[in-house]
């Protein structure tokens, strides 16, 4: 290991350390377009109000005269080892990772006609594994109407077009309605509350500050160090002994979820790819068998992408073009999904599916339009709605892609991605350890980028690296030893400051873990135990450094780390040993972890009820608008493979986190969409009307509003995930007055799920839009 680190450091290009010149402040100027602490160049505008320059051509980058050929990039740094772009595939139409491709048992060119073309046709040769393992045998496993009965909202009319904001009877008020109300933090220059368990400011003087509710557990150690950015509750969040519940939502969705996005139209779009042969579902309608360039240009009757209605569990097949294997994606400000990159025919593709309710809506595809190959890349949305599409195998660069199908990308070198690549072991034997890098848009407009064991901060509009952080020792955190990472909830003050910007990274594996397990390197697999350690960093602090977070109760690779509506997080899926890659992990980690980052050390991780279904490589999950978690996918194999230890998984589950304990229902706020502002304007007040199921009146100090940007999740990283906690100024007659995030660096434009919580108990969300 020491040798590898030395080798990596030998490649390091000197990077300026000017951040120390920036005066330390503990509150970033989120959304105020001010330079923040990460930025060493205060004269550079942070938030270019109109940076889309779609037709900028990179003069070094001529138009590709032959769009079917990969375009040589004269600016690209050549990988030190040849054939990085050539995925060790002896035959060009074989997908990447497999030196010994398993022939699937499910090649079925001659399928009987589907007698009922309106019904999705399931591949008859795919035998869905028995489902005897329902931990709750009294619960129906296959629930066609899985909406929780106790979360119904009689006041919430059906929105015929959920992607569109509903009519707003309460237009945004131009001024902050209650100027006498102090902001949450009365002294924003003094953000570091030495004793954050104590409310800094009781906004509800009628409630005693030491407000003790019967039956509410007090934190064990009120003086323990607790991170900022938690709630302003004047009483501790309600506790429950309920450890969550799993139900099967669909016994066979037909396509394994390798990449997954919840869209604002309340459909989840997920897909694997075009090069892996038959899936579990045929294209609709029957007989729709498009020519598949990734299958020897033969007709392919199987679907590789679906839209999944989380309310009804209905599946609609979509047309996927261009091999999307190990690709990335992001939403546009209008809610459309852009699926970027992949490999082979799709390595420079962009595919867009609109955010609407058209029952025929499908991907529209442009091949060969990205500047570089984006295979194992990650995306982050910028304040102007364009996206940084960064990295990928052998692509030591990023590009800015506007929310449009017709564009010329702006490409920037990113040598850090080469520096952090663990060297290959020979042609076709990559190690890397830095793919699917973690990146987060910081409130100062810069991007925090973590790859392998190092982190930097860079200016997206220039590519300038403005800061490098200390190395994170102990392992490799990106693909293939895929760890988990998230931006912790961003709590805002009424004058649009962000209290405490912080990133957490958990798990992963040794830098050697892939070399000792993958079939390209060894014949005898050795599954190294996944890491249990977690670390946090406040990247905008002057002397930002990694601090040790509590250890997880179990090691994890390939897990998802999702924001929950109450500002806790949930870690789930993945394995306890091995790495990403085909057949490269074992020992499924079936136990989700509730992660409460603001609780005292020692109380932050809580194991929840386990599932019975292994969700290994190529599995995904997503927070749903009704506060449950949808879990789908898992395919450790090149093709759909069922008679093996970790079979391709087509069952869809939903998990109810502890806050869905029915005993908490009286506290559950139900939003009245008609009485709420669903179109927000940066920095402006907005109103949310809600009622508690108990009919008690909501009071300031017990209510927290959260806004969750729905992430694009693949390979254990939820790209663009962020949770915002807007400041509340008052609550009058069950109408919450809140202040919208101040700008696009804090809240990139688009749709957010807005939740109201009472003392940690969330109710179902409404979609709000901000741009
Ligand atoms: C940019 O390119 C697009 C697509 O080629 C074209 O439709 C558009 O008119 C161009 N815009 C400008 C400002 O040149
Ligand atoms: C294919 O199916 C046959 C018959 O079910 C089984 O014996 C064999 O093990 C399977 N092979 C693979 C590779 O799955
Ligand atoms: C499907 O199964 C049938 C019966 O075993 C077999 O004849 C056919 O080749 C199979 N096609 C698939 C599935 O692999
Ligand atoms: C719904 O609430 C009722 C009344 O509080 C309770 O009896 C019932 O068990 C709850 N049902 C569920 C599914 O939580
Ligand atoms: C709350 O008020 C509604 C409407 O008046 C009523 O139907 C319901 O029973 C009340 N719930 C409780 C718990 O009092």
UniProtKB/TrEMBL annotation:
<feature type="compositionally biased region" description="Low complexity">
    <location>
        <begin position="142"/>
        <end position="156"/>
    </location>
</feature>
<feature type="compositionally biased region" description="Polar residues">
    <location>
        <begin position="41"/>
        <end position="59"/>
    </location>
</feature>
<protein>
    <recommendedName>
        <fullName>Galactose oxidase-like Early set domain-containing protein</fullName>
    </recommendedName>
</protein>
<feature type="compositionally biased region" description="Pro residues">
    <location>
        <begin position="171"/>
        <end position="197"/>
    </location>
</feature>
<dbReference type="InterPro" id="IPR013783">
    <property type="entry name" value="Ig-like_fold"/>
</dbReference>
<dbReference type="InterPro" id="IPR009880">
    <property type="entry name" value="Glyoxal_oxidase_N"/>
</dbReference>
<dbReference type="InterPro" id="IPR014756">
    <property type="entry name" value="Ig_E-set"/>
</dbReference>
<feature type="domain" description="Glyoxal oxidase N-terminal">
    <location>
        <begin position="258"/>
        <end position="659"/>
    </location>
</feature>
<feature type="compositionally biased region" description="Low complexity">
    <location>
        <begin position="198"/>
        <end position="212"/>
    </location>
</feature>
<feature type="compositionally biased region" description="Low complexity">
    <location>
        <begin position="99"/>
        <end position="111"/>
    </location>
</feature>
<keyword id="KW-0732">Signal</keyword>
<dbReference type="Pfam" id="PF07250">
    <property type="entry name" value="Glyoxal_oxid_N"/>
</dbReference>
<dbReference type="InterPro" id="IPR015202">
    <property type="entry name" value="GO-like_E_set"/>
</dbReference>
<feature type="domain" description="Galactose oxidase-like Early set">
    <location>
        <begin position="668"/>
        <end position="770"/>
    </location>
</feature>
<dbReference type="InterPro" id="IPR037293">
    <property type="entry name" value="Gal_Oxidase_central_sf"/>
</dbReference>
<feature type="region of interest" description="Disordered">
    <location>
        <begin position="33"/>
        <end position="237"/>
    </location>
</feature>
<feature type="signal peptide">
    <location>
        <begin position="1"/>
        <end position="24"/>
    </location>
</feature>
<dbReference type="Pfam" id="PF09118">
    <property type="entry name" value="GO-like_E_set"/>
</dbReference>
<dbReference type="InterPro" id="IPR011043">
    <property type="entry name" value="Gal_Oxase/kelch_b-propeller"/>
</dbReference>
<feature type="compositionally biased region" description="Low complexity">
    <location>
        <begin position="119"/>
        <end position="131"/>
    </location>
</feature>
């Amino acid at each position: 290991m020491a040798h590898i680190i030395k080798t990596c450091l030998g490649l390091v290009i000197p990077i300026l350390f000017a951040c120390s010149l920036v005066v330390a402040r503990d509150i970033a100027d989120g959304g105020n377009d001010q330079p923040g602490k990460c930025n060493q160049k205060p004269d550079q505008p942070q938030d270019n109000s109109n940076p889309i320059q779609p037709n900028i051509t990179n003069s070094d980058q001529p138009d590709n005269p032959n769009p079917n050929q990969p375009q040589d990039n004269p600016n690209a740094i050549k990988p030190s080892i040849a054939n990085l772009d050539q995925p060790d595939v002896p035959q060009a139409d074989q997908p990447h990772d497999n030196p010994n491709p398993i022939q699937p048992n499910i090649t079925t060119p001659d399928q009987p006609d589907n007698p009922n073309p309106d019904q999705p046709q399931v591949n008859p040769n795919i035998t869905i594994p028995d489902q005897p393992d329902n931990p709750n045998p009294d619960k129906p496993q296959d629930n066609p109407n899985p909406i929780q009965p106790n979360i119904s909202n009689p006041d919430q009319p059906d929105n015929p077009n959920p992607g569109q904001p509903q009519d707003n009877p309460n237009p945004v008020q131009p001024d902050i309605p209650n100027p006498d109300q102090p902001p949450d933090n009365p002294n924003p220059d003094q953000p570091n509350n030495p004793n954050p368990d104590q409310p800094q400011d009781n906004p509800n003087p009628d409630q005693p500050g030491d407000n003790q509710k019967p039956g509410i557990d007090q934190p064990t150690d009120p003086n323990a160090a607790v991170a900022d950015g938690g709630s302003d509750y004047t009483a501790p969040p309600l506790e429950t002994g309920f450890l969550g519940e799993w139900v099967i939502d669909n016994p066979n969705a037909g396509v394994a979820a390798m990449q997954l996005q919840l869209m604002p139209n309340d459909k989840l779009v997920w897909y694997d790819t075009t090069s892996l042969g038959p899936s579990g579902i045929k294209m609709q309608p029957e007989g729709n068998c498009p020519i598949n360039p990734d299958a020897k240009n033969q007709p392919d009757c199987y679907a590789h992408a679906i839209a999944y209605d989380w309310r009804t569990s209905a599946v609609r097949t979509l047309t996927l073009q261009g091999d999307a294997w190990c690709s990335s994606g992001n939403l546009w400000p209008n809610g459309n999904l852009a699926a970027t990159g992949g490999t082979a025919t799709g390595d420079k593709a962009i595919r867009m599916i609109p955010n609407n309710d058209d029952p025929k809506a499908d991907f529209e595809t442009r091949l060969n339009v990205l500047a570089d190959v984006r295979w194992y890349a990650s995306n982050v949305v910028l304040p102007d709605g364009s996206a940084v599409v960064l990295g990928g195998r052998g692509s030591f660069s990023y590009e800015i892609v506007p929310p449009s199908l017709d564009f010329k990308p702006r490409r920037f070198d990113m040598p850090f991605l080469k520096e952090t690549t663990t060297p290959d072991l020979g042609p076709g034997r990559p190690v890397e350890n830095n793919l699917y890098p973690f990146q987060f848009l910081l409130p100062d407009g810069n991007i925090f980028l973590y790859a392998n064991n190092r982190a930097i901060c860079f200016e997206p509009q220039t590519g300038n690296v403005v800061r490098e952080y200390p190395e994170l020792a102990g392992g490799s955190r990106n693909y293939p030893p895929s760890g988990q990472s998230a931006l912790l909830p961003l709590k805002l003050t009424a004058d649009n400051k962000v209290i405490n910007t912080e990133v957490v990274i958990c798990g992963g594996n040794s830098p050697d873990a892939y070399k000792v397990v993958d079939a390209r390197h060894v014949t005898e697999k050795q599954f190294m135990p996944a890491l249990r350690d977690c670390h946090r960093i406040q990247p905008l602090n002057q002397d930002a450094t990694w601090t040790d977070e509590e250890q997880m109760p179990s090691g994890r690779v390939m897990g998802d780390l999702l924001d929950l509506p109450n500002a806790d997080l949930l870690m789930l899926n993945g394995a306890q040993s091995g790495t990403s890659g085909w057949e490269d992990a074992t020992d499924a980690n079936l136990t989700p972890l509730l992660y409460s980052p603001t609780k005292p050390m020692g109380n932050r991780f809580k194991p929840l009820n386990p599932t019975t279904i292994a969700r290994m490589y190529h599995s995904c999950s997503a927070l749903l608008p009704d506060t449950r978690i949808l879990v789908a996918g898992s395919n450790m194999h090149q093709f759909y493979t069922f008679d093996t230890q970790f079979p391709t998984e087509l069952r869809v589950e939903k998990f109810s986190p502890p806050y869905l304990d029915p005993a908490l229902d009286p506290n559950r706020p139900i939003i009245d969409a008609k009485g709420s502002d669903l179109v927000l304007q940066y920095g402006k007040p907005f109103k949310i009307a809600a009622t508690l199921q108990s009919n008690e009146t909501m009071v300031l100090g017990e209510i927290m509003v959260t806004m969750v940007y729905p992430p694009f999740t693949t390979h254990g990283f939820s790209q663009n995930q962020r949770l915002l906690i807007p400041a509340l100024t008052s609550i009058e007659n069950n109408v919450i007055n809140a202040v919208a995030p101040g700008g696009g660096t804090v809240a990139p434009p688009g749709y957010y799920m807005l939740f109201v919580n009472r003392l940690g108990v969330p109710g179902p969300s409404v979609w709000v839009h901000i741009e």
